[in-house]
UniProtKB/TrEMBL annotation:
This is non-reducing end alpha-L-arabinofuranosidase. Keywords: Glycoprotein, Hydrolase, Signal. It holds the Pfam family Alpha-L-AF_C. It comes from Mucilaginibacter roseus. SMART domains: Alpha-L-AF_C. InterPro entries: Alpha-L-AF_C (IPR010720), ASD1_cat (IPR055235), CenC_carb-bd (IPR003305), GH (IPR017853), Glyco_hydro_b (IPR013780), Glycosyl_Hydrolase_51 (IPR051563). Residues 459-647 form the Alpha-L-arabinofuranosidase C-terminal domain. It catalyses: Hydrolysis of terminal non-reducing alpha-L-arabinofuranoside residues in alpha-L-arabinosides.
């Protein structure tokens, strides 16, 4: 009896296994109709969001190697070490004469030399065989005989590059010299040895790699810009972020102070310097060497639409919440009008003339700008309305990006969403920093949005994996796949969602405040995270129109862990399919494509995957999780695709 029962049980279990195996081998059939053109995908669909957090500007994208080059930090010699007689170096205050750059140093030279060593931003990245452009604004009284001996130093203090300059001028003048590097250092430094007889005044002590992006003076770090250019983003949002608001209005971002001569751009404290107590960074300031002119030129260089965000008369509501009274808001509104003129005006306008004088006669063709960042409440609505009225009266074609607060739901969001829809806002900026599960669950978020209402900008988002303490491991594959799954919903609803950008963009591995981030770097190297490759693959393969991709007549948004959508590119004659498997099980898919015979018999497939969902890239293994290209032959009337566990695929078919 026992044996019979066991036999029957074995047969039942065997039948179950066969059934499970048969089910596992059954391919889901996804129907795709490339002839049904639905929503138009905007060229701006996928872009990048830049904010000076994590030393993303000074110490990062902005290629200046000297920290506190104009002695304007709270402690005027922060970043500098004096070797020799420290009493020979005095900080001079000239607030009345130069409120934008009130400090310089006066050095009494000696025959032995007074050495000033700058530590850089967690060191200086120096590459063997490259040259570094030193400059200084200096003056010395007539009859002086002071020379500056310049040294590039490696981590041990060994000299790996030398040059000298003798600033002979009784008036302030800029002096330059190039320093070749004979060795490499990841955390080097710059020594300025003041030798001779007399005294000398020094300001704006600067060191740039000769090889910057497009080899520009006051330029950007070439390798980091290339990472952005490779994405071909549709837009770049700048300069933030909470950096726009400031902890107080006095240190809000003021674009007019960031254009023109670099030595006249007022250095201020960076609001992120002590925001996170566990990552306090008291030496974090903003030099604004990377200012609005540089942002506009960067956007132009990489083929992205510029999207500047301006302060709306409100400081960060998580900090002081300081407000400009409504009857004093005019200068803030005028800043917005003047910015549009700066970008789009001709030589007959004040601000257009300034742009031309800065070497850019062509207009930047600004089409949109943001009013406020993560602001909320009736005070924001009131001030936004004043901006809207003034901008639309003078520049009706310019679209306004509008905050919906800090979260994708809740009282703040609901109030603003309702108010701005009634006010017929152009573009609503929604933010979501949530666990991966939220992104997977919200792939249908925009399916039910009003097609005739404001367009949506997914302005800041990133999946934050719970329980991961190591900042550099927060950017794992699980997070990236959750974002990829969510983005199928953004793209499927391109008639509502016109723009999207991951945030934040950059982080220095030794000087971050916030994680996760899209691109990590040190002073010499960088790597794209799995999240970066998701963003890049979407941006390079967005198509021009959404076409239906369905499972049993429904959008593919989580069935058996699969998320998918399809677009066509009418310019290149391509069908583009995105397929995300967030599960640990392999899934077989049959793509039933209408008019498949009109396409070439080979499909091009790019796959991002790893067997471990917690896999991450690093400086040591920058491409552990990175896209791999392959081809699949099409046989019969379907395209068979295997969606491996924890994978994201872009499948491309080309018309014959």
């Amino acid at each position: 009896m026992i044996n019979i029962k066991l036999g029957k049980l074995a047969m039942a279990v065997g039948a179950m296994c066969l059934s499970t195996a048969a089910f596992a081998q059954t391919s889901a059939v996804y129907t795709i109709d490339p002839t049904q053109l639905k929503a138009t995908v905007q060229p701006t669909m996928y872009g990048v969001f830049f904010e000076d957090i994590n030393m993303g500007a000074d110490g990062g994208l902005y290629a200046e190697l000297v920290k506190n080059r104009s002695f304007e930090f709270d402690r005027n010699l922060m970043g500098w070490t004096i070797k020799g007689d420290s009493s020979a170096v005095k900080v001079i205050d000239r607030k009345t004469e130069r409120p934008d750059n009130p400090h310089y140093i006066k050095v009494a030279a000696s025959t032995q030399g007074i050495m000033l060593v700058n530590e850089g931003f967690r060191g200086m990245g120096i590459r063997k065989g490259e040259a570094y452009n030193f400059s200084v604004i200096a003056r010395q009284p007539a009859g002086g005989n002071v020379t500056l001996q310049l040294q590039l130093l490696d981590e041990s203090g060994k000299v790996i590059g030398t040059a000298s300059v003798q600033p002979k001028s009784a008036e302030w003048r800029k002096f330059k010299v190039s320093i070749p590097a004979s060795a490499q250092a990841a955390k080097g430094s710059l020594a300025v040895v003041v030798q001779g007889k007399g005294t000398i005044d020094l300001d704006m002590i600067s060191l740039f790699p000769q090889r910057t992006w497009k080899n520009r003076e006051n330029g950007l770090r070439a390798d980091l810009v290339q990472m952005l250019a490779d994405m071909k983003p549709g837009f770049i949002r700048f300069p933030g972020g909470c950096i726009v608001e400031g902890r107080y209005l006095v240190n809000r971002y003021q674009w007019k102070k960031t254009v023109g001569d670099v030595d006249k751009r007022e250095t201020i404290i960076n609001r992120w310097n002590t925001e996170f107590k566990h990552r306090s960074t008291p030496d974090y300031f903003q030099s604004f060497g990377l200012g609005f002119m540089e942002y506009f030129m960067l956007a132009e260089d990489i083929g992205a639409e510029p999207l500047p965000i301006l302060n709306c008369g409100m400081a960060c509501q998580f900090n002081s919440g300081e407000l400009v009274p409504v009857d004093q808001i005019d200068p803030y509104v005028q800043d917005a009008l003047d910015l549009i003129e700066f970008a789009n005006g001709d030589a007959s306008t004040k601000w257009g003339k300034l742009r031309i004088s800065l070497g850019h006669p062509a207009k930047f063709n600004l089409k949109m700008l943001g009013v406020g960042n993560e602001n909320w409440g009736p005070n924001y609505v009131e001030r936004w309305t004043l901006f809207r009225d003034a901008i639309k009266k003078k520049y009706p074609q310019v679209k306004i990006v509008t905050s919906t607060g800090t979260d994708p739901d809740g009282a703040r969001f609901d109030t603003l969403n309702t108010a701005f829809r009634k006010l017929n806002a152009d573009i609503l900026d929604e933010h979501y920093y949530r666990p991966p599960q939220w992104f997977r669950d919200n792939a249908k978020r925009y399916d039910s949005y009003d097609r005739n209402g404001p367009k949506i900008f997914a302005g800041e988002y990133a999946a934050h994996v719970p329980g991961v303490d190591d900042a550099l491991k927060k950017n794992n594959l699980e997070a990236a796949l959750a974002e990829a799954a969510f983005m199928t919903g953004l793209e499927r609803n391109a008639d509502v969602v016109n723009m999207a950008s991951y945030a934040p963009l950059f982080a220095h591995v030794d000087a971050w405040q916030w994680a996760p981030d899209l691109i990590w770097f040190d002073n010499l190297k960088h790597y794209g995270t799995p999240n970066y490759y998701v963003q890049k693959l979407y941006s390079l393969n967005k198509g021009t129109n959404v076409v239906p991709m369905l499972l049993n007549g429904q959008p593919i948004a989580g069935q058996a862990g699969i998320y998918a959508n399809a677009t066509v590119n009418n310019k290149s004659g391509e069908l583009l399919i995105k397929l995300v498997n967030v599960s640990g099980n392999s899934q077989n898919a049959d793509l039933n494509i209408k008019d498949l015979n009109k396409y070439q018999k080979t499909a091009w497939v790019t796959t991002l995957k790893n067997a471990k969902p917690n896999a991450v890239n690093s400086l040591a293994e920058p491409q552990l999780v990175s896209p791999v290209d392959s081809q699949v032959s099409i046989t019969g009337d379907k395209l068979a695709i295997a969606a491996e566990p924890y994978s994201f695929k872009v499948i491309k078919l080309k018309l014959k």
